[in-house]
Amino acid sequence: MAAEDLLGPDDVVVGARADANGKKARGPVDKAATDDVATGQGGDDDDDDDDDGDDDGDDDGAVAMTTQGEMRAWYLYYVGANGLALFNFGPSALQNLLDQAATASGGLLDFAGRRRDVNSIVLLANGMSFALQAVLMLAIGAYADFGTGRRWVLLLWSAVAYAIGLAWLAVHEPARWRAALGLYMVGLIAYQLTLTYWTAAFPALARNTARLRASRRAFERGRLTRAELDARDELERSRLSNVAFWLQSVGEVLMLAVIVAIMHGLGVDASPERNSWGLSVLIAFATACWIALSLPWFVMEKSRPGIRVPPGRTILTAGLWQLREAMTHMWRLKQSLVYLVGYFLLGDSLNTTVTVIATLQNQVVSYNTLTLTYLLLVGIGAQAVGIGSFWLIQRRFAIGAKAMFNVVMVAIVLLDGWGMVGNWTGRFGFHNPWEIWLYQAFYGFCVCPWYSYSQIIISSVTPRGHEFLFFSVFNIAGKASSFIGPFISSAIIDASPGGRNNSAPFYFLFALSLASAAFIWTFLDLDRSAREQEAFLAEERHRVRRASEAVVDGRDEGRLRA
């Protein structure tokens, strides 16, 4: 797949476009407006952006335009934050040490008040880690939408993730499995927080490109309909998200090729000790790549104003105010709530499914570092082809993000059905090496686009100016589901005959994925969501205005009394 197909200047195809639900946008497109978008002229225009429902004073003249350098730096951060260190090989390193320690103590280890199977320990560790993530995201997200200091949130948690990745060099012996468990849990927290707040930047990046600024001016001049403007907005967000994911996949394949050479150089097949050391070196190498690739973003990112602190409040009280406002009035955003519920349930199913399959995969390949690396090469290569194909199909046929997301949901249901069959036969259901290779290809091509399109849908149901809070809320939902699912799956495994049927959770996961996919497919309407967001922002402006007037009136009354 040629890079220019994904990165060329024609990513936004002018003319009639698909709206949020995949229907053709209505109304003709004025040629002058088309020319504005195609050329990207006048990006520094001071036209006011309030027509888009923004209440932050976010006019084009006041907010920095997205430059090519800034966008490339944003892409590079994601290439580095590919998950190889803390999300892919971190779990393998932990499970490898747990398995060696358990073998020496009768197959079970003491953890959380009782002796447990290795897979049960991993699932419980995931659950506790995800619970802590939820608390942190709620605390951080409430404040991050205010002012211009949001960039420091990502920098802080990136530094924590870097430290954890490098610390794995000191943990590669079975006797240190408890330390490995701590690194794994904190590493997951840091990694997920960095991804959340890196992703939260992309709606503002997309909406401040020359293309969308030109489209907004064309809309204000009556040359574009609201449906066409919304469609271009969605397509630009899809472009940034999908291109970032595609570039990350390509970069990850190149890193894995280097990792294979490193593994051969270390002789990881020589002994279990060398294999364990190889996993730690691999995590540290991937972390070093992340550090190098992320630095340009911290230099190139432009400060863009967030929500103004409401009159009469400080930055400390504004976060609590925003949480109260969101919880009080979010019920008006019914489509946002529909997706929040569906995202919670389907995210629970997918996150737990990936964890369960990973434990089965590690057992099938006996934790061999080289084999795990080759499997990742297949999976990530398929991921690059998959996300590239999804984006090219969406762009070529003007298909909405919701329709593309529906395809991904079907693939998730099929994946859980595949695992469920493993309860009835040993010939199918992630029990055989050939299945693990096939799984990596299927997961990469058909399921991994979830990680792009689920975020695009979040941005589609998020009122402008509230990205950090809403991305935090949605990721809290994802994390809450991610610790509920592992706890349930761990209990299912413990309750199975002998306490070791690692395929038993697929009964629960198949039913959950089928129900949640049907719910989102049937009830989520992105057109209706756009209208609800406009009404929500209008009401918010009215509430802030009234609060401001009350503060002014109070001051005037105080002066008169004085």
From TrEMBL:
Chief site of localization: membrane
Q: Name one Pfam family in it.
A: ATG22
From the record, give the transmembrane residue ranges: 75-98, 118-140, 152-171, 183-206, 243-265, 277-299, 337-360, 372-393, 405-424, 436-456, 468-493, 505-524
Annotated keywords: Amino-acid transport, Autophagy, Membrane, Transmembrane, Transmembrane helix, Transport, Vacuole
**Gene Ontology biological-process entries:** amino acid transport; autophagy
A Gene Ontology cellular-component term: vacuolar membrane
- Compositional bias, Acidic residues, is annotated for 43-61
Give the region (Disordered) as residue ranges: 1-63
What function is annotated for this protein?
Answer: Vacuolar effluxer which mediate the efflux of amino acids resulting from autophagic degradation. The release of autophagic amino acids allows the maintenance of protein synthesis and viability during nitrogen starvation.
Its family?
Belongs to the ATG22 family.
rRNA processing as a keyword of this entry, yes or no, is no
**Domain of life of the organism encoding this protein:** Eukaryota
How is it placed in the membrane, per its record? Multi-pass membrane protein
The record's listing under PANTHER family reads: AUTOPHAGY-RELATED PROTEIN, AUTOPHAGY-RELATED PROTEIN 22
Q: Does the keyword ATP-binding apply?
A: no
Supply the name of the protein. Autophagy-related protein
Please state where this protein is localized: Vacuole membrane
